[in-house]
Amino acid sequence: MRRSGWLSLVFGALVGTLVIVLLATTVTPPSNATRADCVRLITSSSTEKGDLIAELAERYNNTGRTFDRGRCAKVEAHKKTSGATLDLIADGWNDLDQHQPEPQVWLPSSSLWLDLLRQRGKGERIKAGPKTSLATSPMVIAMPEPMAKAMGWPGKTLGWGDVLEVNRNGGWASKGAAYAQWGNFTLGKDNPRRSTSGLAATIATYFAATGGDYGKIGTAETVQFVRGIEASVAYYSDDSVAFLKTLYDEDRKKPTPYISAMAMQEQMVYLYNRGVPTGDPAQLKGNPVAPLRPLVAVHPREGTMLIDHPFLVTANASPEQQAAAKDFYDFLLETEQQKRFRELGFRDPGGNGTPELAGVVGTQGAQEPPKIGVPTGEQIQKMLDGWEYTQRRGRILLVLDLSGSMNEPFDKNRKDKPYAESRIALLKPAIRKQLEYLHPEDEVGLWTFSDGYEEKMPIGKVKNVRGPMVDLVDNLTPKGDTALYQTVMAANEKMRREFDPNLINAVVFLTDGENTEAGTKEQVLQNVDAERLDNSVRIFTMAYGAQADSRVLDEIAQKSKARSYQAVDPYGIDKMFVNVFSNF
């Protein structure tokens, strides 16, 4: 070969290689996550799909996707219950307790929350536009399979009327002697002011009670029906994801289900039956263990509500953020992302599910009842106002740590307010405020503890004891050590002796430290172990400050089938109390 021809071949090969490199560089743009010039877009999603949205946001950021002639966006995903986010948006967003920035995109579970925002006169805080939906999931009554079969499933289509019938006829014994060990029919339900599942279940029970005529919301017959359903509620959770985790943990410990049913989205039943009760999509990759007793997704025969999972842009979004939000929404509707929604048990935006979904949740071959009509914002507000009087009332023993450490600053390492203020001084206004929120017909009493425990106020109707209790709280003076274990057991034993089956019986226990007196953790956990939710006392624990023994408090709450909460920042004190008392 001539030298010039050889050189031409080498030069051509080099040019070809360079073109391939340039093409590869063009095809694989830099990740938006590493770019400093991208539009910052904050999203706040409902908790049941929060991990999925975070996963898809990371996928979006890694695509290097652009819009509007080369602009890019970086999505930051956060999660919070829909009701809590509604309150923050309506009040101007002050979320210092969790340091969550104000979102430009709100992804609640349901458009019902937008209706309630408008009912509050704050609808302008969401940008007007066409109705959107990322996915859907019907609200269902989720029952452990043995219990659903005892009520006639799958041959019988069940509904809210059947729940009411079991309650009125003396519990599970009415279905046969073999089922008497299950006790009363116990329903797990979220607080409808904070959770979509709770709100949708409340609407569905009113729909069943009125035959779909929302004009009858306030009639005596409707109130009697709804009150009958609410009478079976074990306690009102602020987030059904946490409730499901407890149910899953108990599934392999107890020979019988510890709850009769839960009102939730069908999608959550799917994940629970797959062994992922927390909703974390990453767990599906790790060969999760399915529960021994799967849940059956009962679509109430009276009708069910389709939860529509909208994509809402807030009014505070800049023009650039609005454009970024549109691009993120378009991305979420693309085939690959929609496939991910289906993989996690959601239906498509039109309400169509997959055969796999039907098989996992137990609805294959069943004819679905009609979707119920969506009430107006005014009607929803009437139902929530009515729920205040139909909900199951609570009998609560509030137990407060009064050891010497409560005189110390909330944070010894800071000199600025409120961190430099004493723990007891910060606690008193939070208690006063929460006592105002309790319903007059609830019952509440007060204990304090340090070296030992002392009854400050016997349990009585809130309307009778609220004033004297506020005066007592204002005059509390800390001193002594921390008899945590002794006090938990004594409070639990008192509430068990005085157990009222018509009320939610609970201890609300707050401490800023760890046990310094006699007793062991093992003794406490054995003492508070709840066999069934219809005859046991729930102990809701509050870890107050960074020095509180939050690990032990978590174990106590879990053993009693309740929840634990924390306030590691002064700004989180009010929220901790709101979350605890929303269970009643």
UniProtKB/TrEMBL annotation:
<dbReference type="Pfam" id="PF13531">
    <property type="entry name" value="SBP_bac_11"/>
</dbReference>
<dbReference type="Pfam" id="PF00092">
    <property type="entry name" value="VWA"/>
</dbReference>
<dbReference type="InterPro" id="IPR036465">
    <property type="entry name" value="vWFA_dom_sf"/>
</dbReference>
<dbReference type="InterPro" id="IPR002035">
    <property type="entry name" value="VWF_A"/>
</dbReference>
<protein>
    <submittedName>
        <fullName>von Willebrand factor type A</fullName>
    </submittedName>
</protein>
<feature type="domain" description="VWFA">
    <location>
        <begin position="395"/>
        <end position="580"/>
    </location>
</feature>
